[in-house]
Amino acid sequence: MNPYPTDHYRSLRIALLGAGSVGSQVARLLLEHRDELAARVGAPLELVGIGVRDVAAKRDVELPAELLTDDLGTLVASADIVVELLGGIEPARSLLLDALAAGADVVTANKALIAAHGPELFQAAETVGAQVNYEAAVGGAIPIIRPLEQSLAGDRVMRVMGIVNGTTNFILDRMHTEGSTLEEALAVATELGYAEADPTADIEGFDAASKATILASLAFHTVVPVEVVHRQGITGVTDAMVEQAERNDRVLKLVAICERLEGEGGEAVSARVHPVSLPATHPLAAVREAKNAIFVTAESAGDLMFYGAGAGGPETASAVLGDLVSIARRHVLGGPGAAASTHADLPIAPFGDVLARHELALTVADRSGVLAGVAGLFAEHGVSVESVRQDPADGEASLVLGTHTASEARIAAVLDALEAHPDVERIDSVIRLID
Ligand SMILES: NC(=O)c1ccc[n+]([C@@H]2O[C@H](COP(=O)([O-])OP(=O)(O)OC[C@H]3O[C@@H](n4cnc5c(N)ncnc54)[C@H](O)[C@@H]3O)[C@@H](O)[C@H]2O)c1
Ligand SMILES: N[C@@H](CCO)C(=O)O
Ligand code: NA
């Protein structure tokens, strides 16, 4: 007996766009696991073409030459399902809009595109009853889109916090454990296929901000444009900050935080990306190398944690294949897929309303009265100081001040006042503390 009874349904035509770190792995898995995937779907998944820039280019993963084409437009027009793994906005956006207009479904790992043009793509899909799946866009292999979109659809998500960029986590981890420089660690992360084509997207926090947009939009049923995500990358993280964190049994991590805030005007939502200093015992501190972890706090479910490979070719291909099988089954079985919703339409809180504890390292003149003057600036702006440490050295002193919880607006005002203070030689670092 045929163990794969798929004859009753015609093949589904799959067009793959891009054969880089992720695309080449998706192609390999589609071809190697053809029979098993057909059994799961109930129909064969036929890879009809792979869109590349240069069909003659040398590749790490060998792909059948007859499938390669540089005519992506024609390839898209022939497909039931288009898998986009090019990255970037154009031509990915136009190709996917063309695919959707023709009634094809779409799978993508492109968080930059979903963050910037998700609503446009979802609308185009809804118009024709097609689907856009993007599990690989956040947390790579980790299931996080589907849990937010479906598993938690009946709950009220309060907060999502996580390490969502593998490259910067890898870099910070290497800075802590091996004393590597940012540049050295980035070169290794690029070699391992974690970094974006332009790694500025990783180290300046753009990639994490795209992911924060996607997470916040799903969690709060509200379009949270990427432009409103407060973003700070890791280029300002210095060896001294790493050492300072280690002296206090802490670890520096780049995190994305999405949460509901209760402001004067009622409920609002906030999404932001910046480095934080975490106690070494915090669960996120244990997230090493290029791994990702996302904490979700929901009203009824409580705390949930999702952990795993946030980057890497084969790992990310796993999520892409999962999306593909899910969409393909819908073709075979019929029925609409689950879609994201934006009905709540909550206001976006200004970054200044966000509350956090901060640790500031300053170099000040080593004279009597300086500490009192500096402390006075905090009091003047309503920021309460929790701890002070002073290390004298050659006429100047290094001051490390920890604050109680204060709004970002108040901290910004303190920083301005410190900049202008004659006894403050420089502000060496500012880091937000997480308990
Ligand atoms: N690498 C990862 O770990 C990872 C994880 C999650 C999501 N993603 C996302 O997956 C997508 C692909 O990432 P990647 O790491 O495989 O990138 P990559 O740079 O390795 O591969 C992209 C490929 O697309 C090709 N390409 C780009 N524009 C093209 C065009 N106009 N015509 C033909 N080919 C074109 C490039 O030549 C390259 O081979 C991106 O959106 C990325 O953000 C990557
Ligand atoms: N460049 C991304 C790939 C995964 O989205 C990262 O380092 O996390
Ligand atoms: Na994922």
From TrEMBL:
One GO biological-process annotation of the entry reads: threonine biosynthetic process
Keywords carried by this UniProt record = Amino-acid biosynthesis, Methionine biosynthesis, NADP, Oxidoreductase, Sodium, Threonine biosynthesis
Binding site residues for NADPH: 111
Q: In which pathway does it act?
A: Amino-acid biosynthesis; L-threonine biosynthesis; L-threonine from L-aspartate: step 3/5; Amino-acid biosynthesis; L-methionine biosynthesis via de novo pathway; L-homoserine from L-aspartate: step 3/3
Task: Please indicate if the UniProt record lists NADP as a keyword.
Answer: yes
Which annotated residues bind L-homoserine?
196
Q: Which cofactor does it need?
A: a metal cation
Binding annotation for NADP(+): 17-24
Query: InterPro entries in the record, alphabetically?
Result: ACT-like_dom_sf, ACT_dom, Asp/hSer_DH_NAD-bd, HDH, HDH_cat, HDH_CS, NAD(P)-bd_dom_sf
One of the record's GO molecular function terms? homoserine dehydrogenase activity
Which catalysed reactions does the entry list for this protein?
Answer: L-homoserine + NADP(+) = L-aspartate 4-semialdehyde + NADPH + H(+); L-homoserine + NAD(+) = L-aspartate 4-semialdehyde + NADH + H(+)
Q: Which NCBIfam families match?
A: PRK06349.1
User: What name goes with this protein?
Assistant: Homoserine dehydrogenase
